[in-house]
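F.,

This is the one I mentioned.
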């Protein structure tokens, strides 16, 4: 892509975490940022998540703090707890409105929006951004059962990129130490993936080579 193209990343934290967990790997957010900085003139990288504020310790807090100091604009709000009709404790924390407002406000300043989410509720936002002349790439996966991306969102996007094909570029090295992605469990990378998913991750993707200049044999960015 042209270095003059202005772009912004919009990461739906909960949705991306669910997708990477289903695929069995962790995102290295330093590598993710470098990857897209190398492809476009990246002017913003937003990360959205709701947080339960009354917890003594939140497993996502170290990640949020790290992102905030390392090139991401973190947007959070308190998650709401409620009890459903069956007496079960539920937590609700939807960040769709915050993400949509930021994207529409930034639309006059960018040429390309990269949305990390498979939530079908974003289809109308993608359409609105396109009406403003912004090209939209959606990043999620169809390699899970069921797929993590809504079909109408995938159809609306100018381009769909499957997370599986980004694993060699933005996945965490199993031996690496440092900030981890949202959630518990040991860091995982392409070598730890189920065989069928690992095979797909290693398979060349012509669309990525065209759009992002990614070749599966390239060395990963420095940590």
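My design for it:
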């Amino acid at each position: 892509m042209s270095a003059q193209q202005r772009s912004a990343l919009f990461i739906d934290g909960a949705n991306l975490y669910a997708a990477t967990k289903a695929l069995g790997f962790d995102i290295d957010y330093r590598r993710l940022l470098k990857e897209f900085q190398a492809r476009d003139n990246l002017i913003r990288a937003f990360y959205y998540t709701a947080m339960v504020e009354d917890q003594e310790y939140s497993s996502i807090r170290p990640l949020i703090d790290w992102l905030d100091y390392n090139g991401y604009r973190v947007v959070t709000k308190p998650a709401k707890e409620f009890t459903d009709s069956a007496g079960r404790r539920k937590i609700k924390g939807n960040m769709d409105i915050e993400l949509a407002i930021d994207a529409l406000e930034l639309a006059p300043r960018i040429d390309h929006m990269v949305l990390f989410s498979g939530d079908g509720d974003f289809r109308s936002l993608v359409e609105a951004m396109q009406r403003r002349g912004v090209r939209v790439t959606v990043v999620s996966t169809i390699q899970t059962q069921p797929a993590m991306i809504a079909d109408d969102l995938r159809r609306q996007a100018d381009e769909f990129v499957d997370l599986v094909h980004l694993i060699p570029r933005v996945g965490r090295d199993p031996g690496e130490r440092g900030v981890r992605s949202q959630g518990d469990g040991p860091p995982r990378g392409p070598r730890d993936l189920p065989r069928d998913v690992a095979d797909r991750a290693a398979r060349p993707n012509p669309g990525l080579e065209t759009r992002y200049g990614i070749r599966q044999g390239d060395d990963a960015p420095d940590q």
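The CA atoms of residues 32 and 170 lie 5 Å apart.

Talk soon.
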